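Escalation from tier 1.

The customer reports that the assembly of two entities below gives different structure tokens on two consecutive runs. Tier 1 could not reproduce it. I'm attaching the input and our single run for tier 2 to review.
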Amino acid sequence: MINTAQDLKEYKKRLKKALNNEFLRAAMGTFASAYKEAQGRLLAGVDVSGLTREIAASKDAALPRLPELYEAFKARAEAAGVKVHLAGTAQEANEIIAAIARDNGVQKIVKSKSMTAEETFLNDHLEKAGFEVVETDLGEWIIQLRHEGPSHMVMPAIHLSRQEVAELFTRVTGEPQEPDIGKLVKVARREMRKHFLSAEMGISGANFAIAATGTLGIISNEGNARLTTTLPRVHVALVGVDKLVPDLATALRVLKLLPLRATGQVITSYVSWITGTNECALGPGGKKEMHVVFLDNGRLALAQDRVFSEALRCVRCGACANVCPIYNLVGGHNLGHVYIGAIGLILTYFYHGRKNARAIVQNCLNCQACKSVCPAGIDLPHLIKETYCQVLKGEEKQPLKNRLLRRVLKDRRVFHFLLRRASLVQKPLATGEGFLRHLPFFFGKEHDFRRLPVIARVPFRDLWPRLYQQVDQPRYRVALFGGCLVDFVYPEQGVALMQLLKDQKVQVEYPLSQTCCGLPAKMMGEKEVAREVALQNLAALDPADYDYILTLCASCGSHIKEAYPKLVAGEPGAATKMQQLAGKLIDFSSFFTRVLKVQPEMFQGEKKKVAYHSPCHLCRGLGVTREPRELLATAGLEYVAAKDEDTCCGMGGSFSLEFPELSAQVLQKKLDAVEETGADLLVTDCPGCVLQLKGGMAKRGGKVRVKHLAEALAATLKEGEKGK
Amino acid sequence: MKSPNLSQLFREKAEAVQVLVREVNDPAEACGYAVDLTHSQGGAAIAAPGWDPGVLSLLKDHCGQANIELLTENLRDHAARLHTGFTRADWGIADTGTMVLDSSSEDLRLATMLSETHIAVLPLSRLRATSADLEEELNRLAQSPPRYLAFITGASRTADIERVLTLGVHGPLELHLLLLKDGSS
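Tier 1 run:
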């Protein structure tokens, strides 16, 4: 039934098809905007980061204790008449549940939504064993009738239109049904009542298994979970062993954020707390026959994993899908196997294997939107790259781009030599505006959504001897981390920086042995290469020598700040030095506003309407949001807000080369929003975003100019303030 | 001293999820409301499990006058006929607009789930600010199983088709909360 693309070629075919699905695109687009708007409104006044930290900490504390929590739950629940099972595998869980059904003379089973049952393909198993299984959650029922998997963890049928549902219900009921949502819901109500009243067994999942009292916590909006656990005489709950929490307090804390993040509700309509075998007129002795089947399926081992245990913090809210620019383009069936969205890319590998994960896991922009909304604070983009790294290890043949990257990136001299060579080779193709006249032959047509920049004739490192200024009694000693794009593509951004620093009494060094930050390696799952270049950069930039490590590139910056310490975690010496390096890293606008505290007097105050693109790795990666806008105001530029300013531009480094059609779509939305503002200039503070936005704007023949914030500021410096 | 603000907050949060909130002075007024509403909606039966004899006799009088059937037990046998579920609420949680009901009794669960309209009576003295303020009580109840506790916040709802909010997919289409003045307010 679920058939996930197992290689990139097939995967890209399906992505293309999804991009052509008008309904899906429109539905996903409205959903994304509405979700974002509701989050802003609902979360005002809620200590979201505090709650997120608490949830993460309580989950992290529970994970190593799962076996102990399981024993405690079992003791409590069994004392209250419940039978508790632990299934090692999906197959085992399905067999246990089928056996319970057989032993109790069951024919019909009603189910309330359970992602864990989706994970084990429980319905298939039970149907093959001869039982009638009816999903009672409206969305789940719809996809069950269509023989599909869920396209969202909370809204499983979000990919379908009312027309499609009406056609389906017409077929199922044998009566014509109008595409009227209210009426369609009534059809489900009527049909489901019959099933609820005639089923002998109800299967539910659970959001919490509370060890202290042996209580299950189940949240739902429709109320089908309450009916499923009440009307039939047998109740079986299938629960991932990771849902064990020590106490009610922990569950209540999760409940404060889960519904807000999932659907923008303060709380769901129903939360049921079930302890022991409750009253049931049809059950033996007037009591419910109740079983709890805990599913391991790798979770207990995962809980011990130094890197991946974090994935088990997941509370299945689906927020990581809600905000994902890719999910919002192609939908859940193209971004997961059973579990979808960012967490799905990770869990698919562990629960459903490498073959199902190998294509989809590459479809991540690393824009960090998911991470910023995860109520359990999971570093999803990081784990996605770690998963890709694991996937690659299992591949017989490594992709060509990976083999090349391994060869080239680790040796700075070779890498820089090749860049200089490329500059010579492309010379005849260069236009006056710094673009390639046309794409090199090895690029397909789908890459032609933006113009590509030429590699600079003279890289920044060769300009450096001329730019270097010796400063007497400097206020600060700063190392500039250029990054490949500033160094070899946009040296003018570095030149602009030096102009701005001219009278600031800052001693800037540009250590020439610095190399690529290594983010491209991380993006391609080449963790070892990423680690090696990180160490090379550490050798080039001893944090003890500087007050700050300054960068114009938000991507390099957030990679150094966040990923570097992780790459060398636990390595004697390096781990400490890397923490120091990360601690001293600062982005351009924070340096100018918070450290140098530049004043409006420096600038001409030229009135110009300026739109701003907030780079993912700046606003989410480094948490810098106010400073760039303050800096624009200081420079006297008139900032005009654009829609979805902090949504990714679609660059994502190598992502835009691997998935050009997706990158193009994300970019178009961004450029449309910018043009709507009527701005003359678009600024951003990441050269990667500049590449994407500038190339896209040129391709569409737009009038808005695109610059790095440093260039925009340097251009409006008062005459006397400009350097040589 | 906390009650006026709490009840205000509760009302705000509950109304935000389409709960119909109103204050009543005594159980008689609540019974009258339940019967009138049932009558105006064309309902034929009220399921009212779990009430003490005092309230029950008030309710019986009102039902008799309006010619509405009163059901108090074995509700499973009347599943198709339950128009109104009329129950108490054990607590209210103000910051989410939630009513908490110990529905360990099967009839209580059926009345609150199979009915078209659910009317619950919440004494103002049982209002708490947050769920954390109920932790002790809820834990105590869970420690004497079997126990089926329910947080109910608004009517049954779905947004599964095109994310359009629709009320009453499986459970009640309407939830009415009657805040009962009971001295502490």
